[in-house]
Design a protein that fits this description.
Layout (H helix, E strand, L loop, with lengths): L9 H32 L6 E5 H18 L3 E5 L6 E5 H18 L5 E5 L8
Parallel strand pairs: 2-4
Antiparallel strand pairs: 1-3
Helix pairs in contact: 2-3
Length: 125
């Protein structure tokens, strides 16, 4: 609601931005906790389909590229020789990739490289 107000104070605008970012992060953590709880109880529903893990990784890297640039991180996505297509739930697999890349962005040393390799081994990706 504060974001919709016409607030001219630059400090207040910064605080509102921080509040917005932290509330999004908290929402995401709660969703992750609920998902983990469902997974541990066996109550998770999987919608399995053929998923190209490399295409999913390209999309995830593309969406997070600005965040990596802000932290002066160079992301290196290595293209596989063969398309790593697996039977998986695309939304949950996306969530896993998003979490992995988010952690890499947050915890990698600024000015370093982050390498992403997507491979298929037997039926696993």
């Amino acid at each position: 609601m504060l974001k919709k107000c016409d607030i001219l104070d630059t400090d207040a605008q910064k605080y509102i931005t921080v509040l917005d970012e932290k509330s999004i992060r908290l929402k995401r953590l709660i969703e992750d906790l609920v998902e983990a709880s469902k997974a541990s109880s066996g109550a998770v529903t999987l919608n399995k389909m053929q998923v190209n893990l490399y295409e999913l990784a390209v999309q995830a890297v593309g969406e997070m590229e600005d965040g990596f640039t802000e932290r002066n991180l160079q992301i290196m996505l290595n293209e596989p020789t063969e398309a790593p297509v697996v039977l998986a739930d695309s939304q949950k697999t996306w969530r896993i990739m998003d979490n992995l890349l988010s952690n890499a962005r947050k915890y990698s040393l600024a000015g370093s490289r982050v390498y992403v390799d997507v491979i298929k081994s037997d039926d696993n990706g």
